[in-house]
Amino acid sequence: MLLKFQCLSCGKTFIVEDLEVDESELSCPHCQQEVPVPECDEDEEE
Ligand SMILES: [Zn+2]
Asked: How many angstroms separate the CA atoms of 26 and 15, rounded?
């Protein structure tokens, strides 16, 4: 399952496989800032 995140710092989106999401925060691949990981595992389309 792939999870889509949006960086709060640079506003870009990126995809991470849920298996890689093992911590409460990720680093944005674009700006290296930490991005909080939502705990829900359901689709969260806006
Ligand atoms: Zn970023």
From this structure: 11
Q: 10: closest CA among 35, 44, 39, 36? A: 35
Torsion of CA 4, 17, 30, 28, to 10 degrees: 80
Cβ neighbours of 34 (radius 10 Å): 14
The radius of gyration of the chain's CA atoms, rounded to the nearest angstrom, is 10
Could you read off the pLDDT of 14-37 as tens digits, one per residue?
A: 998 888 887 777 889 999 999 888
Gap from CA of 31 to ligand 1 centroid (Å): 4
C-alpha 42 to ligand 1 mean position (Å): 23
